[in-house]
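#structure-requests
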Amino acid sequence: MSTVDFVAAVEQTHRALLEFVKGNPVPLQERYSHQDDVTLANPFGPVVRGWEQGAATMERAAAYYRDGEGVGFEGIAQCVTPDLAYTVEMERYKAKIGGREDIAPFELRVTTIFRPEDGTWKIVHRHADPITTVQGPESLLKR
């Protein structure tokens, strides 16, 4: 598969994420591989493996968002090979999160790994977390 196909796949994933922060997980679920080796580490934890757990985790996570919109996607790194590709990005959004009624900005650092399946790039791993600034060593300790 070509780099052009990969660029289109990333754009489709970004559009799916814009729906996700409105509370709709379906477009993002459609971007994922449905195989048992899929992994997902979203900001709400824990890491899950396999399509069924991944799909359920996406549904739970999307339910935390309402009235969201994208602010921007900043590409940090990208690599495309015939068998795998990845992106490292900063994703910026605003949304109502959890039970809050105010729209709040938030950002995530994200690594997404894709592989070609049935003529398109599918997500096989996504790790998103809110660590977007320098953290001290004590940040590793549970509070």
